[in-house]
């Protein structure tokens, strides 16, 4: 079993723990392997002057606060550093899968929800990649040596107002069976077939308490299974996957949060 508190794991030159300047994203193109076209598409997005932070829709957003929407809009003219980074990890196998987790139910935020591995940036972090790799090791025991960078997606805003940078990477098939959930943070690890994000998400309805009133929230979602039952991939995690489908594969899905009494 991996030692989830071990901070002495080998660090490559690319992933040093100290650096004079944080590197949010760097030029990256994989020139071979099955993810080379995806890597090229992500690189082309940045070469064409892609947005660093995706704006949030006002017209079809009844869940995210006005302050969060305003913060995302004000960031369009700046280049903020990410508050947190997540690893969009795709298995390098004949039928690729996405690494997802179900967060522990005792956490203060997003308890019990589906998420990528990832977490907040520390002052000592050298890059978005190092943040994502550190968190992947802490949460599921994924060693960085099994991770190969594919590219970066634009930052998106979380419901709490954090700028989140998705780091897209492949992981070696040999590392998949050895992943173990850190029970302090993760209740379960599961895999979503990568091809699912290339088909439109379903319109999913769930009960949500907003303030003191309970609503039915309608939003796009993909459905997965962690072995213990159906898991709903929605919210920021699903928005990131939708953006990956759009930039990487030209699949555009309308996005919304609609509250109904």
Automatic annotation (TrEMBL):
PROSITE patterns: NUDIX (PS51462). CDD domains: NUDIX_CoAse_Nudt7. Its cofactor is Mg(2+); Mn(2+). Residues 80-214 form the Nudix hydrolase domain. Coiled coil: none annotated. Pfam families: NUDIX (PF00293). InterPro entries: CoAse, NUDIX_hydrolase-like_dom_sf, NUDIX_hydrolase_dom. Keywords: Hydrolase, Magnesium, Manganese, Metal-binding. This is Nudix hydrolase domain-containing protein. It comes from Moraxella pluranimalium.
